[in-house]
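Hi everyone,

Forwarding the result from last night's run.
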Amino acid sequence: MEIFKQTNFDFLGYKWPFIIASLVLSVAGISSIIVKGGLKYGIDFKEGTQMTVKWNGGPPEDRIRKALAQKISGEISVQPFTDVSAKNEVVIGTERMGEQQMNAARTAMQNTLEETFGQPQSGMLDFNNAGASEILDRLTVPLQQAGVQLSDEQLRLLITNMLAYRNTPPRSGLITSFDELKAVPGVTPAIIAF
């Protein structure tokens, strides 16, 4: 069975139209780069300061940009994570500067965020490496302030169940999201929030 009856194509006969089209597109691209003031590299290529910040709710990107623009000179980028496991997180970046300026920019970023949005919690608990006493210390006061009524014995049992869940296969000591802990009896959304 023959699909193509004539297999002789004159490729070189059409070389000049394609060469001209290629040159026109190349000149148009180079002209566009020149007219727009050169290539605009992101922070990945400009070596700037970068900070990742997690918010309780949706991050207020415009407020972050506005607050930081008043304190830090140069370009400031605020980009949300698109990964589901990193929801409510943004990456804040500044453009390239000297080492001393970068350290000052990091400090200014942190101070500005604290002044504008309040003090952060004392850092995220590394649940995958935390022991029972660390989790107990972290949960006791916030749960009482939130009105969650658990006795010391109930809280210790809950923490034991959470650790047992974390350490059983297929997890084997690794929780990728606190939402996984909803499978543990007694874990409520209020507990996951802390």
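The radius of gyration is 28 Å.

Cheers,
N.
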